[in-house]
Amino acid sequence: xxxxxxxxxxxxxxxxxxxxxxxxxxxxxxxxxxxxxxxxxxxxxxxxxxxxxxxxxxxxxxxxxxxxxxxxxxxxxxxxxxxxxxxxxxxxxxxxxxxxxxxxxxxxxxxxxxxxxxxxxxxxxxxxxxxxxxxxxxxxxxxxxxxxxxxxxxxxxxxxxxxxxxxxxxxxxxxxxxxxxxxxxxxxxxxxxxxxxxxxxxxxxxxxxxxxxxxxxxxxxxxxxxxxxxxxxxxxxxxxxxxxxxxxxxxxxxxxxxxxxxxxxxxxxxxxxxxxxxxxxxxxxxxxxxxxxxxxxxxxxxxxxxxxxxxxxxxxxxxxxxxxxxxxxxxxxxxxxxxxxxxxxxxxxxxxxxxxxxxxxxxxxxxxxxxxxxxxxxxxxxxxxxxxxxxxxxxxxxxxxxxxxxxxxxxxxxxxxxxxxxxxxxxxxxxxxxxxxxxxxxxxxxxxxxx
Length: 451
Description:
Blueprint: E1 60-62, H1 64-74, H2 76-95, E2 102-108, E3 123-131, H3 137-203, H4 209-242, E4 251-254, H5 267-275, H6 278-299, E5 306-314, E6 319-327, H7 337-402, H8 408-443
Parallel strand pairs: 1-4
Antiparallel strand pairs: 2-3, 3-5, 5-6
């Protein structure tokens, strides 16, 4: 996963050559994104599985890697998909099974009249029957189960990548909320400083009461803003804790550097990664499953005979003989034509859905790249030119106000410009990280981080 601050992403290209490139359906190899972190795996049976993770929730200082690791081991949606993978594996084993044989006992010619009174003239037949599947039904059934298992593995891998991206985005939101609270505290401290100077100027006869009232209003507004940032931070912390199924956050604070931005990838690089992206490659598994369903529907058109064989015991002469038979369904009313047509139409639908998924992925990837480039450029411009200027202007205005060279309104205007610039800078950084995380979600590959 692309990391914030000092955390470096391991395995950016480690598994690139193992990407599934389409052409045939198969369970996906793990994508490089977060590939060095362990993820929840369900047990092979109900006896060895548990829905309660045995890993503790993060506490203390939280870093991005800690959050990602906790989410991969504790996220309920990822756990559910892991159980689905195991269930499909069991279904694949079950699909290999042959139909069970049948046993039946028939007693004839008893409890009648005359020679058939009681059981003296009865006939007892023990029959063993076996359904023989024709038309490749067993192979078709196993093909469907195998394709559904591969599709479940794709859904698990896509969920894993989604959990990583969403957790990273929530972590960024916590960092941004912490920074907003810090800025609000700075603004409150500055407002109180202006209020103290206004009080001194009023007592010295250098200012009017309106100036002191205005400074008090500034303090009140700053306190309200700080309270608002506290609520925003609490919400962001709760959303991040939900990534690992935490009912309330136990960590003290998140630690990271929002200014460490990823390098904007080239269009050619993204186009190459798109071909192997999970949002595109998954549709080959969908098509394979629907092809398997079509083959199963076709195999159902072939009737399956049931062969029976067993001894018959004759009570009268006290003799025995073999009885053999065969039962063959007659496809008079149900020839499974509509089922085959349905499967063919579903297969045709998958082609249209795959094209739609590709268009969406291309559009979302291009949009995220443009947004990342724009946000990174905006943040760079603000950091290099705007922020130093507003900070210097505010410092000059505050010192001049204390010495009586500037009016209070000028100091307030400078402070307002400073707050707006820093908010804009923080917003640009947050949007850049979110755009990068969207690119990583779509491609399954971590972006390179600027040193």
